[in-house]
Amino acid sequence: xxxxxxxxxxxxxxxxxxxxxxxxxxxxxxxxxxxxxxxxxxxxxxxxxxxxxxxxxxxxxxxxxxxxxxxxxxxxxxxxxxxxxxxxxxxxxxxxxxxxxxxxxxxxxxxxxxxxxxxxxxxxxxxxxxxxxxxxxxxxxxxxxxxxxxxxxxxxxxxxxxxxxxxxxxxxxxxxxxxxxxxxxxxxxxxxxxxxxxxxxxxxxxxxxxxxxxxxxxxxxxxxxxxxxxxxxxxxxxxxxxxxxxxxxxxxxxxxxxxxxxxxxxxxxxxxxxxxxxxxxxxxxxxxxxxxxxxxxxxxxxxxxxxxxxxxxxxxxxxxxxxxxxxxxxxxxxxxxxxxxxxxxxxxxxxxxxxxxxxxxxxxxxxxxxxxxxxxxxxxxxxxxxxxxxxxxxxxxxxxxxxxxxxxxxxxxxxxxxxxxxxxxxxxxxxxxxxxxxxxxxxxxxxxxx
Length: 450
Ligand SMILES: [Ca+2]
Ligand SMILES: [Ca+2]
Fold this sequence. Notes:
Immunoglobulin-like; 5-stranded antiparallel β-sheet; binds calcium ion
């Protein structure tokens, strides 16, 4: 005796992409991946509406399937026809990780379950001073098993590093890999059946340590999987996730005027913001740049010209940091009426780099694709690298940098020739790990060369 009935549901959700839902931030079931940690306790309130069937109210039994205790609600709900009814759900994840359950609405007088929703709450591991910005998980991975871990990476983190220990070339240690999933839910590693294992099947991926530079802020998922050919049933592993970062000061280091081919002595200081690492500061070549704060209106287009010299090794144009946070600006690099590069996604953080650019005049076009405030200011940079401009040299060597530690290193900035009028010389001081991962960046600006 089947009697189909139409029921709809809505509830606030929070993921890195939930702003793109229609309406924004609302889904059919609970899905909180961002902003939750173990021990949190809060309420999500559903709205249910029954839009067909009996003209009198119908009572549905509520049951949670697969619930580990994270979700709790009333045991039934009465739904009059075409009227919104709210249901508060208490959420109490007591352990880190993903907690999921199905919510069933069942009219006991009819066959089958009338309506159900999927519910997920992710309590992410947090990086803090108490854990030295490093979280270690130990476990065993069975053949073909995938284990899932979640880590909250704060905004502005320079590097997110993951290490795997345990499995090795030694017999009886198993064959295991980790894969990294971006807060948007997609893998940034190859998920091919041969990729990223320890011991390795292919050499395209380092199975024991990988680092993301400037990771997207939000909750990253790491999976640990044992291959079907793993040589023990259950392979013990240790997975360590860390965030790394260091500041450079002064930043920017501005030199008002330098004499051509005469080194200017500097001293740079560094501070380790997060977990301990082994590394050093290093310099770069100087490049020819325009660093400016510009403004643009809604649907307006602005162009800037760069004359790139023969022998340049890279041309970069970059915009960002708009005063109108809702603005969507796009960036195009054009030469001889051809678009050679573009960066045009849904925000105003855009960058294009052209390696070994041909000499000539390039047009940097900024498109005010959407500026809700009418007009917005934004950071503008164009820069081309050429060895002829000079160097930033920093004298430092790899050393252990404990959490919170500071150190200094001397530098010499040597400007060789002046850039074109209206441009400055721009270089960098970097902090790099002994594995050559950049975890801190400072700018050096030479405003005038005489
Ligand atoms: Ca039923
Ligand atoms: Ca854009």
